[in-house]
Amino acid sequence: xxxxxxxxxxxxxxxxxxxxxxxxxxxxxxxxxxxxxxxxxxxxxxxxxxxxxxxxxxxxxxxxxxxxxxxxxxxxxxxxxxxxxxxxxxxxxxxxxxxxxxxxxxxxxxxxxxxxxxxxxxxxxxxxxxxxxxxxxxxxxxxxxxxxxxxxxxxxxxxxxxxxxxxxxxxxxxxxxxxxxxxxxxxxxxxxxxxxxxxxxxxxxxxxxxxxxxxxxxxxxxxxxxxxxxxxxxxxxxxxxxxxxxxxxxxxxxxxxxxxxxxxxxxxxxxxxxxxxxxxxxxxxxxxxxxxxxx
Length: 295
Description:
alpha+beta; Rossmann fold; Tumour Suppressor Smad4; 2 domains; four-stranded parallel beta sheet; 34% strand; globular
């Protein structure tokens, strides 16, 4: 199958990981005989512009970056006839790759660009803005903000660092969520709407979430003492935290979320909205190159 690739590179992604990987990625694409060109981004918005231009030119728009640029490109290509997204991991978390089965090694991921299969995947929508992974808020709002401000040298540990720093100052909030018309109010830690299974550099917050079922997994954590919450955090890396009595998971197409104090909603590692919000699943909104046997 003949494919032409526009490699959209975020130079600052993962503390420069994408830029460091670029020569090896380009060399592998040449070995595979995949025609390509490389374009550096100046911002997420610029990356979205490059992706739209690539789609118009009949090229696969490929994010060599972390999840933030992947989400931005997904938003740019969502619903565009003939548009195809490819992903080569180049960030700190690379959770979309982890959730979808794309190799975590950027050179190995090039084989998916050459031989992968185009699959229709769902995206999520927060008041008109697109995400591809997990949108979350509450305790996650504080942890994400701290992680994004953390030194790049921490690598994947920025997410653990963010959680531990946020834990010290956290006070429970009262959330109201409406999932497909069913309303619930509770005091607790967080609310998340998951299109994919993982976030935060390998935390399987929603281990049962699927990118192809037309639904979002809504994960809520009710109020428990800080000590118990901290003790349960390591379980998120295996997805076994969902067995805790404080954690509830339901599925739905439309989720309305509000709280008793302001929170920023984060998705794909970046701020995407402010409460109150409406989060929706958008089925089969995006074609993505995946391995022949995706998760």
